[in-house]
Amino acid sequence: MRVTRVATSATRTCAVCERTLLMGEHTMRFAPDASGYVDVCTLCQEVALEHGWLREGSPTTPTVPLDHRRRRKSWSSLLGSRRSEEAPVAAEPILRRLSEVELEVVEAADLFNGSAYRRTVAGIAKSLGPPQASIVPLSGVSGEMVITVAWEISWYQYRVTPESAQPVRLAERGHDVEELEGSFRAWNAQLADDGRLMPDIARV
After folding, report:
1. Taking CA 185 as the corner, what is the angle to CA 183 and CA 191, rounded to the nearest 5 degrees?
2. Could you tell me which of 51, 61, 138, 183 has the fewest CB atoms within 10 Å of its CB?
3. Distance between start and end Cα atoms, the chain
4. Spatial separation of the C-alpha atoms in residues 188 and 64, rounded to whole Å
5. Edge-to-edge strand list for the sheet holding 27-33
């Protein structure tokens, strides 16, 4: 994940989830390192604090240890740190009878559910209602999966690369679902109230 900085005042994004911040939306400023402060949205502030980012106005000593830079977790850890705490999408007996493609779908959902993006879509769903969602393989031999979460007036698309240091990243976003290719509108997943992505697979 990159730390997003925007030189102009036209557009601001959250440095954690990279969501475009709305005009007038409340944010906090954090310093992930010595290079300066970045904006973090309300949904991601707890994640930033848990990983040692210094909130603007907080005392710099002795809160931050001298070896903070050496011990600070990687970007992939920031996005995926909660994965081990989450219940898996499917239990092992179910996994044993799934096809290879279905197993890739389940793995993509597990990675998404362990990322900070889960909080982002859960927050949007509180305002816009339940979205439609799909998890499909990207055409070609890249091994990437594409997660699409869409409402009537907004959609977000994430790329999932399991072997990458940053396994989940925001790829694209838009406002009209008709902008999406038909393959991405083959809705095969649901979003739970807590933001967990649940693929439509047989449970019995």
Report:
1. 130
2. 61
3. 37
4. 45
5. 36-41, 27-33, 54-55
Phi-psi region at 24: left, alpha or beta (left = phi > 0; alpha = psi -120 to 50): left
Class of residue 43 by CB neighbours under 10 A (exposed 0-12, middle 13-18, buried 19+): buried
The DSSP secondary-structure symbol of 42 reads G
Question: pLDDT tens for residues 32-81?
Answer: 776 778 888 888 887 777 667 788 876 554 333 433 333 333 333 444 44
62, two tokens = 């002795």
Q: Which two tokens stand for residue 36?
A: 């300066």
46: phi then psi, degrees, rounded to nearest 5: -65, -40
- The set of residues, in sequence order, having a beta carbon less than 8 Å from that of 179 and lying 6+ positions away, is 155
Handedness of CA 56, 58, 63, 66 (dihedral sign): positive
